[in-house]
Amino acid sequence: MKHFTYMASVLLHHFYALILLLLPISCGAQSYTNVSLGSSLTASDDSASPSWVSPSGDFALGFRKIENQGFLLAIWFNKIPERTIVWSANRDNYVQSGSKVELTANGNFVLIDSTGKQTLVAEPGATAVAYAAMLDTGNFILASRDSATLWESFDNPTDTILPTQIMNLEMKLYAPISDTNFSTGRFMLHLQNDGNLQLLTTSFPLDTPNFAYWSTSTAGSGFQLIFNQSAFIYVVAKNQSIVNMVSSDVASTQDFYQRAAVDSDGIFRRYIYPKSTAASGGKWPMRWSTLFYTPSNICLAIREDTGSGACGLNSYCSLGEDSGKICQCPYGYTFVDPNDVMKGCQKNFAPQSCEKALEEMDLFELREMLNTDWPLNDYEYYQSVSEDWCRQVCLSDCFCDAAIFRDAECWKKRLPLSNGRFDLSTGGKALIKVRTGNSTSDPASKKTENSTLIYVLSGILGSSAFLNLLFLLATCIFFYRLNRRRPEKGMPVGNLRSFTYKELVEVTGGFKEELGSGAFGTVYKGVLANENNKLVAVKKLNKAVSEGEEEFKAEMTAIGRTNHKNLMELLGFCKEGQHRLLVYEYMSNGSLSDLLFEDSKLNWYKRMQIAFGIARGLYYLHEECINPIIHCDIKPQNILLDNYLTARISDFGLAKLLKVCQTHTTTKIRGTKGYVAPEWFKNLPVTSKVDVYSFGILLLELVCSRRKFDINAEEECQIVLADWAYDCFKEGRLDLLVEKDEEVMEDMKTVEKFVMISIWCIQEDPSLRPTMKKVAQMMEGAVEVSIPPDPNSFISSI
Known about the structure:
Elements (H helix, E strand, L loop, with lengths): L1 H21 L11 E3 L3 E3 L8 E3 L5 E8 L3 E8 L7 E4 L11 E4 L5 E4 L5 E5 L8 E4 L5 E4 L5 E4 L7 E2 L3 E4 L3 E5 L7 E8 L5 E6 L6 E7 L8 E4 L5 E4 L5 E6 L8 E7 L5 E7 L2 H4 L8 E6 L3 H4 L14 E4 L5 E4 L4 E3 L9 E3 L16 E7 L1 E2 L4 E5 L4 H9 L6 E5 L2 E5 L7 E2 L6 E7 L7 H19 L3 H21 L11 E2 L2 H7 L6 E4 L3 E8 L5 E8 L3 H16 L9 E7 L2 E7 L6 H7 L5 H21 L4 E2 L8 E3 L5 E3 L6 E2 L31 H16 L16 H10 L4 H4 L3 H4 L2 H14 L10 H8 L19
Parallel strand pairs: 36-40
Antiparallel strand pairs: 1-10, 2-7, 3-4, 4-5, 5-6, 7-8, 8-9, 10-11, 11-12, 13-22, 14-19, 15-16, 16-17, 17-18, 19-20, 20-21, 22-23, 23-24, 25-26, 27-28, 29-35, 30-34, 31-33, 32-33, 32-35, 37-38, 38-39, 39-41, 40-41, 42-45, 43-44
Helix pairs in contact: 10-11, 10-16, 11-15, 12-15
């Protein structure tokens, strides 16, 4: 079979080579409108400022205003709403309103800023320029009287190449700093002089290469990188034979706009955009969609000796949509600049004193981060040690900011941390040193501040009887007014914004666009116009106040005190008259139920990532909150997905809060049929194990990509997923669960582990179920998964 696959790939490669050599590299003769000598364009705040447009109108060259930065002299796609920029002349030197670009009488292409300073954009050589033209290919040219091209933007790319464009030896694409800052960034695509095409990090802020993290391995044979008219991207030798096919995904340039770019996250992507709704065939949305990207995992690909890695210093990288990276700070750290995460993270607490390191050990703790590492950053390494020993040796060392423990090995690390990554293949755990309670300032300074306050108050109170009386009166008035303004008990406001009902009517456009509804309320899409048109989801309770007040308070109290990447963020609320509304961040990808059951299937890797996210979110609710929270209604409909398909646990309307030292509660039956734990029906104390049970059912659904009940199943034994899964496990035939999913079939070891974990989670006896902390550890490989017993499932009787 492997031999057949190899032969097929060889034949396919030669087929591509034959076809591509027969296809033209360019469109041949181009129609265009000449830009005559002496013509100019002026940068203006007016959105209708002039530009030089290609004959078809597909591309235009002119000035584009970039908010808070100035103007770019750029080329962009002119017929799509995004007006995506594909080339710029001054990406590192923005100009201001009143600046001008001119094709001078002597043929020079010059950028003149608002102060009169001139910059030569094009160097056409000794031959006289007769005119310029914006072509339908997206190429801007300067031409001689006999129409010979003397200079072209295609030979001077920034971050993008287009169909018909060729990169010659030593040409480079530089990624922008961000999606809104087009300045030269930290990554580059380079066709080196030896013919090897590489993606590299740069020694930012210099543009010199630092570390290669992807390559075509064409050194000694490569000569050009071609993006041809048929939209294939490949490296050819001098004789034009193909030596590496970079992207051969089929998409017609007749029906789609196309581009390939090195994005700000360091990934090289090929994009397509339907030219019309008919061209999309209903398959592609009317926006840029990714057809190809490389590398597949940039977090693991970049492992450089110098530099920050895929993300900024002291941060770590995890994968998001299209293998785009998500940069995050570890426990106790915050971004230096939230608008540019590549600037890294900094501590938000006072460091450990080296003079009193042993005395201050009790003031610090080590927070666990499974499957996380900062390789090549250790200064001490120990073998054959325990985790407790590793913890103590870091806590007692003022230079140790983190330790990595894996397989009885311990690495001590100090700031700045580089090459940070989270990935299931990493294994082990990172132990991050933070001040106990994550204090943001030195306790000693607090003591000093408190002492100063005491001295000041003592001086005031001791000055005279009259001042004492005046101070006492003012204090009474202050607390009286404070109590009048205090929110209801059990309704913590914190940083939440209080909205008026009128505001939320405007935000939702009169509750026009419904996102979904449930037993307690309906959720509507809204836009915060005064916050850069930020999208929000507004939950409007639809029951009477007497019935809905408890649910409103439960959700406010539960989620208002949480802060975790796998939980929905509550932004604000409205409690006005009979109106009870909650304002959440908007989740662009809807619910897990939509994508898992009703839309195209999520791939296996993304399903695993979603499962890990839910597990970590529940672990946080159960054990890391000040007051542990039982969610009580874990199901696919209550797992929402953000832009990066990160799982966010939502809908805390049924949540129960446990007081400190409380381990269980008693309440009426809550939750959704099929995910409800047996103890709800037996009048037993309800603990966090009810969420574990629900998670077990949900994990099976994620593994098998099917619902818990399927009345249309091929056989009766397959109707109830939990029963069928245990039968398959007991008979050693787990392949039957996923036989229609080739990607999953190649990872049966993980399937077996996840099914075993699920069976442990759905044990009828709550005491046999693991905690969510142990579930997360088993999923991430930190704890072995033992053979589970028969869960004696009651599901079929529900």
